[in-house]
Design a protein that fits this description.
four-stranded antiparallel beta sheet; alpha+beta
């Protein structure tokens, strides 16, 4: 397939930030987009407006982030002001279809990101953009490719929304069953976390003590996300026999982030064998005659999002939820049978989410495969 430099088949406009005195949030002037922070899945959302723009993009233009992070794209459906973190790419109607160009730039995004230069913030120039090689089939084929990727992309977004709705359903069910965890309208008994669960921090990583003789995988802060364990990247360090006993994980253990997004919590469900946890993680083991992990995990979520753990999190530089403060965290303790009913609801919802996620994973694999075939000229002639 013939390839052309992007600058020969589109028009590139680099953004320029206007004076801050021309910004407003009242909708006066044009929507003002400054970078990836304004981007959605396909189109940006206006948070700020500008009544004296210096550089603009037109309806149907592609916006691309040219300052860290580099390479992300959206498409706009109205005239707008663009700051220096963005560039606008306008398709030439007789040569290029805007959605085709958008999808190709997304396919090529990692390569664009790698073009970024700069000691503090990575950035790309007009010349970098204009010299991107783009395969150029005829307009009809470009539209066919864009149409296929549109349809698969829409299915992906539909699956994501279905998963989001299930998560919202669990949030709503928690409040419906237990009330507001801040005001405690149902008058549940309140206890300290150390009265209903045992907790401890994980093993300290000491590079000088590593021999490589008893290396095992461990969970770090980035492995623990809300309500799920991310095993895509696992680090390893030495755990001798005593350490393996001390830092073992059991089914139902809560893993709570000590720093970063302090308090972020997931439940260990024996996702793998011989995995332990590092000092950035608290292991919280519920006393089964008092509370269940699913209830405590969702209590942690509401504490994090609504009250920042009742002011227990310290954040002079990086937020921390220390072991002592975690033990002092106050939690409402509803009847155990009610907690079990909530746990059953979470389990049923998780099964539905798992099925949807499996379908989503297949769609995303299909999407990537289609992109590769489309831009290699294998799908349409």
């Amino acid at each position: 397939m013939v390839k052309k430099d992007l600058g020969t088949v589109t028009t590139v406009t680099m953004g320029q930030s206007p004076s801050s005195e021309t910004y407003n949030t009242e909708g006066i002037g044009l929507p003002f987009f400054q970078g990836k922070a304004d981007f959605g899945t396909m189109t940006p959302s206006a948070r700020v407006y500008c009544n004296q723009p210096k550089k603009t993009a037109n309806a149907d233009d592609i916006l691309i982030s040219v300052r860290a992070p580099v390479g992300a794209t959206n498409i706009v459906y109205q005239k707008c002001c663009i700051g220096r973190g963005l560039a606008a790419i306008s398709a030439l109607p007789e040569l290029t279809h805007n959605k085709y160009v958008l999808y190709y730039l997304r396919y090529f995004e990692k390569d664009i990101e790698a073009m970024g230069v700069g000691s503090t913030f990575k950035a790309i120039s007009r010349n970098d953009l204009e010299t991107i090689p783009i395969p150029l089939p005829c307009l009809d084929v470009q539209k066919q490719i864009a149409g296929v990727l549109d349809r698969v992309g829409s299915l992906i977004e539909m699956r994501k929304k279905q998963i989001d709705k299930l998560e919202l359903l669990v949030k709503s069910r928690f409040v419906e069953m237990f009330g507001d965890p801040v005001t405690n309208p149902m008058g549940w008994e309140v206890k300290r976390l150390d009265q209903v669960a045992d907790s401890r921090l994980g093993k300290m990583l000491d590079a000088k003590q590593q021999t490589g003789e008893d290396r095992y995988h461990y969970l770090a802060n980035f492995n623990v996300q809300w309500f799920r364990i991310d095993l895509d990247k696992l680090n390893a360090m030495d755990f001798d026999e005593a350490s393996r006993a001390e830092f073992a994980l059991e089914y139902g253990d809560l893993l709570v982030c000590e720093g970063g997004e302090a308090g972020r919590t997931a439940i260990w469900k024996n996702e793998m064998k011989d995995c332990f946890f590092q000092k950035a993680i608290h292991r919280v083991r519920c006393k089964v005659d008092v509370c269940v992990p699913e209830y405590i995990a969702w209590t942690m979520y509401h504490k994090a999002k609504i009250t920042n753990f009742d002011g227990l999190v310290t954040s002079a530089t990086i937020a921390h939820l220390t072991g002592e403060k975690l033990k002092r965290l106050k939690v409402q303790i509803p009847p155990l049978d009610l907690q079990h009913r909530f746990a059953d609801f979470v389990l049923a919802t998780d099964k539905s989410k798992f099925a949807l996620q499996r379908g989503l994973d297949k769609l995303e694999i299909l999407y990537q495969s289609l992109m590769q075939k489309c831009f290699a000229g294998e799908l349409f002639n």
